[in-house]
Amino acid sequence: MKQGVKSIFKEFWGHRWKVVLGLACLLVVDGAQLTIPLVVKAVVDAISEATATLPWIAKEALILFGLAMVVALFRFAWRHFFFSAARQVELDLRNRILDHMLALSTRYFTKTRTGEVMALATNDVESVRQAIAMGFVAGFDASIYALVAIGAMFWLDPVLALWTIVPLPFLALLMGVSLKAIYDRWDRVQASFEGLTEKVRESVAGIRVLRAYAQEDGDMEDFGRRSKDYYDKYMHYEKVDAVFHPAILLLAGTCVAILLGVGGARVMEGRTSIGSFVAFSSYLGMLTWPMIAAGWMLSLVQRASASMDRIDALLRNDDIEDDRPVPEGARIEGDIEVRGLDFAYPGQVEPALKGISFSVPAGGSLGIVGEVASGKSTVAQLLCRMYDPPAGTVLLGGRDALELPVGFLRAHIAYVPQEAFLFSDTVAENLRLGNPDLTRGEMERACRLAALHDEITALPKGYDTLLGERGITLSGGQKQRLCLARALLKPAPILLLDDTLSAVDAQTEQAILAGLKGETSRRTTLVISHRASAVRDLDRILCLQNGAVVQSGTHEEMVRQEGFYKVIVELQEMEK
Ligand SMILES: Nc1ncnc2c1ncn2[C@@H]1O[C@H](COP(=O)(O)OP(=O)(O)OP(=O)(O)O)[C@@H](O)[C@H]1O
Ligand SMILES: [Mg+2]
After folding, report:
1. Among 149, 154, 176, 528, which is most exposed with the fewest C-beta within 10 angstroms?
2. How many Å separate Cα 431 from the centre of its chain?
3. First to last CA, the chain
């Protein structure tokens, strides 16, 4: 069996009780429905043989009504059981997708477009749900119907039965041929949907840039192209899918024609009763549904199998961040050592860092300055293991960072990435991110240190102001300072600031740095900046150029040497 179908069955199995109950109800419905022609046959035969009495007919009519009631009630029940099982699978799958995605390493996110994950969590999950809700039910129902109807037909008149089912093997042939096509084409539909989703996401996220460059039309064109591609792929898929219905109806029509011809003759010859003939045609009518259902089921399940394979590919991605137990005696108190660190980003030939070495004692401070793209942020990312450094090159608390579980390691670093990111939530909730039990007083203290408190209190609802898409947009400098305050509130022995004050003016920068002094004397502090003013008071400063350390020392030492540091200090003096 196909892997995708197997996985779907596994999902199914998790809700087996609902499924079993659903199937039981379905059996009752089928049983009742398949009995109806027999009642009709008895009545027709009794009337044609003039043996019927009025009270007897009334009784038979009541029986029919009772059967119809049973059908209605149990149909409600099986739909309830099946549909709730399917919705449950949908819920589980979607949660698992997000859960697993959150556990994946940073490498996954550098390779994956947001649209891919969105498509998985929407369209693919939906097609799995449909297969479970309708595909399997239809398959089961159709098999029961087909078996009983064909059985009953053979019981009524084996010769006629043989004649009428002659066209059925053609159906099996048709289905066999289409299966692969459905799988492949659906896979392409979903891949195209990914592209479309990603496009919409990007257009919305980049709407300001698009407007600034008056590129709405160009973007629309691009969107139109992708939309058309999705349409084309879908039509390509629909073509196979659409073959089924007419082909099945044609086959069913052929069966009826055979029945009329062969069956009519047999009734005239007296080999079969009129009642049997009528019942026979009812059963034949009932066979149309399994034929349609079989086609429908195969395409639903085939589609779902393609989708499930895509979902499984994500769920089976084992590039997850390690969650090993913390090694015994491991402690991160703040001392950092980097030894001969070489690093190239995955898939990149050119190294981003070449032989970087430095060490900071617990409670000490280090500044890293350098030109754009000199590797400053790369150092920060490796310290937090957003990417893995080579073994033995980064040591925290005297231990190789690779030996420490990432969760443990990151819990000890208050890292402010270069790109300020805030969640669409209140100011207070954003501040609580690393520490849910914060008091208002603590938040205010951190925001005062980040020279932001006054600006927050000036917002409409102060600390409870909603930020982001449905709230207030902060300025670039405000965002940076809020991210800084958030990091200050995280009780971690290492503070790592990546160009965190780049968007504030020199005066505010100095005010913040002065305020931070008390803070930085308690924790190990790393400040990355392209401005010398942000690092001049730190214990030691490292100058990076092209991924290598070109100079290091204290501010006082280096301003007296000819070199990189003196040049940037002088340049910045001139700017003032
Ligand atoms: N995810 C990545 N994949 C591949 N290459 C990367 C990645 N991130 C950065 N680089 C490359 O690594 C080099 C160093 O980048 P890095 O971000 O560390 O520079 P930086 O010193 O922080 O620059 P800036 O001052 O502009 O922030 C650059 O050449 C950059 O193109
Ligand atoms: Mg950077």
Report:
1. 176
2. 27
3. 73
Pick the CATH number of 325-412+493-503+516-576 from 3.40.50.300, 3.30.530.20, 3.40.50.2300, 3.10.20.90: 3.40.50.300
- DSSP collapsed to 3 states, 381-445: HHHCCCCCCCCCCEEECCEEHHHCCHHHHHHCEEEECCCCCCCCCEHHHHHHHHCCCCCHHHHHH
Mean pLDDT for the chain?
A: 89
> Measuring from atom 20 of ligand 1, which residue has the nearest CA?
373
Q: Of ligand 1's atoms, which has the minimum distance to the CA of residue 547?
A: 14
576 pLDDT above the threshold of 70: no
Q: Distance from the CA of 471 to the center of ligand 2, in angstroms? A: 28
Closest-approaching ligand to the CA atom of 382: 1
The number of the ligand 1 atom at minimal distance from the alpha carbon of 374 is 21
* CATH fourth-level superfamily of 3-315: ABC transporter type 1, transmembrane domain (1.20.1560.10)
Q: To 5 degrees, how large is the angle CA 9–CA 15–CA 17?
A: 115
pLDDT tens-digit map of 102-143? 888 887 887 888 888 888 888 899 999 988 888 878 888 888
Ligand 1 pocket member 382 (CB < 6 A):
no
Residues near ion ligand 2 (CB < 5 Å) are 376-377, 418
- For residue range 241-250, list pLDDT tens digits in order: 788 778 888 8
Q: Tokens at residue 282, please?
A: 């009812």
Dist. CA 547 → ligand 1 center (Å): 9
Q: Which listed ligand is nearest to 378 at the C-alpha?
A: 1
Question: Mind listing the pLDDT tens digit for each residue in 199-234?
Answer: 988 888 888 888 888 888 888 999 999 999 999 999
What is the 497 CA–ligand 2 centroid distance (Å)? 10
Residue 116 pLDDT: 85
Ligand 1 in reach of 370 Cβ (< 6 A): yes
